[in-house]
Design goal:
The complex is a heterodimer of chains A (about 130) and B (about 400). Chain A has a single domain, classed as Dimeric alpha+beta barrel (Alpha-Beta Plaits, 2-Layer Sandwich), CATH 3.30.70.1060. In chain A, strands 2-5-1-6 form a 4-stranded antiparallel sheet. The longest helix of chain A has 15 residues. Chain A has 4 helices and 6 strands, in the order E-H-H-E-E-E-E-H-E-H. By secondary structure, chain B is mainly α. Chain B is about 70% helix and about 0% strand. The longest helix of chain B is centred in the N-terminal third of the chain and has 22 residues. Chain B is elongated. Chain B starts with a helix and ends with a helix. In chain B, about 45% of the residues are buried. The chains are: A alpha+beta (about 130), B mainly alpha (about 400). At the A-B interface, helix 2 and helix 3 of A face helix 18 and helix 19 of B.
Chain lengths: ~130, ~400
């Protein structure tokens, strides 16, 4: 089963982002990714740029609406995602609570739609 | 209501009806009734007996309401007998021991032993239990529901196991209590009130069990173990919230009264001459506690207790603890070879293994390998303070 860990950051945590390689904050994330890979559960994942860099579009009554920033105006914003292959939601929650993002922001665990449903959306042909 | 009464009432009702879920429901109905009646009419002379009578009545209502044959004839008889004021007993048997054995019955998924105990004997709600177990509250509620359905329909006996079954059955009860303590212990290392409460609840359960089974060495061993750990709770964090490992803790911050109580239980347990897992684990903690008096830690003694422990309980955690003790007693090289000898698939996700490994590799000057192991330990850490501690050690 595949699960998405959706990582939400508080503004403070976004502010902690920098690109110094020896930054302890980054070190914790690197270690977390390494543990996921070594455990053989990692499928994919990436951090997202800060929310202010986002642009949201809608099409309503034939009109384009473009908005600066993220879709939802909330304190904690989506900051990244990780896809994991795991036997159960229990195991996914165990990984989620180890995520460095869990102590400052939040990590939502959500199952990916099952394979058959996914094909309905993506149109990949059945084998 | 005191948790003492809650557990006694649920136990008494469920032992006589073999229906834990309905016993809990009936008692909560009775508690609701008490909330409206007592402030108006005054607290009854014997509140427990009042609650028991009210619970029996509401139990009968539940059975009538469902219009199904939920209850056997003896059950109905039991409920009816005690549902009138005249029949109120002044005292009733403490049946919590039977309830503890039901909660940790081998026919019930071992993962549910502790949640059942926390709910049935202590009255914790599913949402609270779910937090500690890191499970969605709805899921925990469903699992508890299923386990109780199994208790009702699976013919699980509400009784104290026979002599020949007792050691194994008691081990399951102790295991479940210790698991509750572990949840309170690991979660947020003392920073979280929720976790602290759970450790206290576990100690309380062990005290109840000891009161009900005063001659069991392992019950005393478990209580001693938990009290030793509890004695060091405050010392595990620096004033700034930083994580302080056991070897760096200031013994002046340990609780002497708790250590003394732990030592007393351990000495009494040893006198019974039946060694066991929890007594050995308590003995290891007892050696650590000695540092408060002597100023040093006898690692050779700790390694020896671990060797005995491995013979009866070769769990991963025990073997990692043994490696750490051997390293302290005989040098990092010796500790590392103990770690290397562990062949266990769970190693890749077991945080303490990587933390010990990293420390030993670092002591041997193997910097790249140490960094690698530190990364694994950091990546698997849940507590941000532990993560920070390891990040600093890795450098």
């Amino acid at each position: 089963m595949q699960f998405a860990l959706l990582i939400y950051h508080s503004p403070e945590e976004f502010a902690m982002r920098n690109n110094e390689y020896d930054d302890p904050h980054l070190g914790a994330w690197r270690a977390y990714y390494k543990a996921l890979v070594e455990a053989g559960v990692y499928v994919a994942g990436d951090p997202l740029e800060v929310p202010e860099t986002g642009t949201t579009v809608r099409l309503r009554e034939g009109k384009r609406r473009v908005q600066d920033g993220p879709y939802a105006d909330t304190k904690e914003q989506l900051a990244g995602f990780i896809i994991l292959e795991l036997p159960s939601v229990d195991a996914a929650l165990e990984w989620a609570v180890r995520c460095p993002g869990a102590s400052l922001g939040a990590v939502e665990v959500r199952p990916l739609a099952p394979e058959a449903k996914r094909r309905g959306f993506t149109g990949e042909s059945k084998q | 209501m005191a948790r003492e009464s809650y557990g006694r009432l649920v136990a008494y009702l469920s032992v006589h009806t073999h229906d834990l879920a309905s016993a809990e429901d009936a008692l909560s109905e009775a508690l609701v009734a008490a909330l409206t009646t007592w402030p108006r009419d005054g607290v009854p002379q014997n509140p427990e007996a009042w609650l028991l009578t009210a619970a029996r009545r509401s139990f009968i209502d539940v059975i009538r309401h469902h219009q199904v044959v939920l209850a056997s004839e003896p059950t109905l008889q039991f409920l009816k007998e005690g549902s009138t004021e005249a029949a109120v007993p002044t005292t009733f048997q403490d049946e919590r021991l039977k309830l503890l054995f039901v909660c940790a019955h081998p026919a019930i998924d071992p993962a549910m032993h502790t949640p059942l105990m926390l709910q049935a004997v202590l009255g914790l709600d599913a949402a609270r239990i779910a937090q500690a177990f890191l499970i969605a509250p709805k899921t925990m509620g469903q699992r508890l529901f299923r386990a109780k359905a199994k208790i009702r329909s699976g013919g699980i006996p509400f009784e104290i196991p026979q002599e020949h079954d007792l050691p194994e059955r008691l081990a399951a009860v102790l295991e479940a209590i210790y698991a509750a303590f572990g949840l309170g212990w690991d979660d947020m290392v003392g920073a979280d009130q929720r976790g602290r409460d759970l450790a206290e609840e576990a100690i309380w359960l062990a005290r109840v069990l000891l009161q009900l089974m005063p001659n069991e060495a392992e019950v005393q061993g478990l209580l001693s173990l938990m009290l030793h750990c509890e004695a060091r709770r405050l010392a595990r964090r620096g004033p700034d919230g930083r994580y302080v490992p056991l070897s760096a803790q200031d013994p002046k911050q340990w609780s002497l009264p708790l250590i003394e109580e732990a030592e007393r239980h351990l000495a009494e347990a040893f006198k019974r001459g039946r060694s066991g897992r929890f007594q050995l684990e308590a003995a290891i903690q007892s050696v650590h506690a000695e540092r408060a008096r002597t100023g040093f830690t006898d690692w050779a003694a700790i390694a020896l207790f671990y060797e005995k422990l491995i013979r009866i309980s070769p769990a991963l955690g025990v073997r990692v603890g043994y490696a750490a003790a051997v390293a302290e007693a005989n040098g990092p090289e010796a500790g590392l070879s103990v770690l290397d000898a562990i062949v266990h698939e769970a190693v890749s996700n077991y945080q303490p293994y990587w933390a010990v490994r990293a420390h030993l590799l670092q002591s041997l000057g193997k910097t790249p390998e140490a960094s690698d192991a530190y990364d694994r330990a950091i990546g698997l850490a849940e507590d941000p303070a532990v993560r920070q501690f390891l990040l600093q050690k890795r450098g």
